[in-house]
Amino acid sequence: MKFLLVFDFDHTIIDENSDTWIVKCAPEKKLPNGLRNSYQPGHWTEYMCRVFVYLGDNGVKEDEMKRTMTTIPFTAGMIDLLGFIGENKELFDCIIVSDSNTVFIDWILKAADFHKVFDEVFTNPAAFSSTGYLTVQHFHAHHCAKCPKNLCKRKVLKEFLDKQLERGVNYTQIVYIGDGGNDLCPVMFLKKNDIAMPRQGYTLEKKISQLAQSLSPVQCSVLVWSSAIDIMSYLKLIIKE
């Protein structure tokens, strides 16, 4: 009996958006209007690349970025939840699927000593160039019309499950914990026995309830959370069963 926990990162594990938090490093803690207005829907990664160039041009170095990123607060109850999962790793496989980037997630998880809780992190690859600029690439290519062009979380989840099956790992239940519009695509892939846990008041919860109203509800069960303690209560319940 093993459960798969799938986490989004921004506004789910941490209580902020890591990509917008980095703006605290910019001169006067803001971006010029031209740069801010250059975002085009579905092309967030390209926009962030321009933000990182701007920060680099303004002399923002890696250590300053790291210091800033590790001050992001975790969501209410999340530290307790991740501690609980860490103590019960024989029951839970745990992955992150996020539109953030490897550098930010790595910094934040390691600073709080939570990196060992997660088996794998699927996010946009990032690295510092020889000139000290942070660069980010698309996670993969895909053909899903619903998702931003750099990342389809359903494709990530499906490929992970296929790989696990080849290793002989079949999950009793998948628990998907997220908040954003780009979490809907993987939630729609979940089966009757699985559970989606959208964060209360965020886009994912609204989109799931819109589907239910239009009489095309998701197949899986839905349990809304506002504190990660709600998630922990549910996990304690299923491992007792």
TrEMBL record:
Cofactor: Mg(2+)
Record GO terms (molecular function): metal ion binding; phosphatase activity
Entry binding sites for Mg(2+): D8, D10, D179
Gene3D superfamilies, alphabetized: HAD superfamily/HAD-like
Active-site residues from the entry: D8, D10
Record key words, sorted: Hydrolase, Magnesium, Metal-binding
Binding of substrate, residues: D19, D99
Family: Belongs to the HAD-like hydrolase superfamily. PHOSPHO family.
Name of the protein in question: PHOP2 phosphatase
Species whose genome carries this gene: Rhagologus leucostigma
The encoding gene: Phospho2
